[in-house]
Specification:
The protein is of the alpha+beta class and about 240 residues long. It is built from 8 helices and 9 strands. The protein has a 6-stranded antiparallel beta sheet, with helices on one face. Strands 1-8-7 form a 3-stranded antiparallel beta sheet. The chain is elongated, with a radius of gyration of 21 Å.
Length: about 240
């Protein structure tokens, strides 16, 4: 389920572009915040009213820019532009339907995003950095809040068992309950998952570690590559 390398899992980090002074101009940054439709000062308030979602601001940026792009064109021009994108990505005309599905995956950061697509829908790379900073801020705040998992999973030789937890069970209580849970089959591991945020892995000997999923991207070979499960931070307890 997770790719573990010794005591550390691989993590991709996104390197921010910098101007000659080493920091983004304050006025330019404020304009970019409007581009992403967010203000850092209101990020915490927004997070308190909804469940944490990984890459929330970055996904919204891509979705909004894509829909703005599509709505600004008539059908004929839209098809011409999409066919142009096909050629830019070195895809065949027969792959047009696949392109639409790929765009959905790109906008949801389910797979690596071509830099040409980001340019195509009019997204400034620094806007992505701005959205990522808001995503990381919200991630860190979510990590500080008390979490209430609704279940844990047990991996056995015959499959995976889901065990429901009472409403209001805290993360600490869930760890204790999972550690004390017994079954007739050999247990390989137990997992407590907080969606989009982290997974606590309890080993058969009772030791456990936490996988966290920070919203990080790396830019390589003109591709924006989101870090996925198995490429995230592991903290041993």
């Amino acid at each position: 389920m997770f790719r573990k390398r010794g005591k550390r899992l691989t993590i991709f980090k996104f390197k921010t572009n910098q101007n000659t002074s080493g920091i983004i101009n304050e006025m330019e940054d404020n304009e970019l915040k409007n581009d992403v439709a967010l203000e850092f000062s209101s990020a915490t308030q927004g997070a308190n009213h909804r469940t944490y979602k990984r890459f929330y601001y970055t996904r919204n940026l891509l979705h909004n820019k894509y829909h703005e792009f599509i709505l600004s064109l008539d059908n004929k021009t839209m098809l011409e532009r999409l066919n142009s994108l096909l050629k830019q990505l070195s895809l065949d005309d027969a792959e047009f339907e696949r392109l639409v599905k790929r765009i959905e995956s790109w906008n949801n950061l389910k797979t690596a995003i071509p830099g040409k697509y980001v340019e195509f829908i009019g997204v400034n790379p620094i806007s992505i950095e701005t959205a990522l900073r808001a995503d990381m801020k919200e991630f860190k705040e979510a990590m500080q809040r008390i979490q209430y998992p609704d279940c844990f999973f047990i991996s056995t030789s015959s499959g995976v068992l889901r065990v429901s937890l009472p409403v209001g069970t805290t993360e600490k209580q869930a760890i204790e309950m999972a550690m004390n849970f017994r079954c007739n089959e050999e247990i390989k591991a137990k997992y407590i998952t907080i969606s989009d945020l982290k997974t606590i892995v309890i080993e058969p000997d009772g030791n456990y570690y936490t996988l966290t999923y920070p919203p990080t991207l790396t830019f390589r070979k003109n591709m924006y590559i989101p870090a996925h499960a198995g490429e995230c931070d592991a903290t041993y307890n």
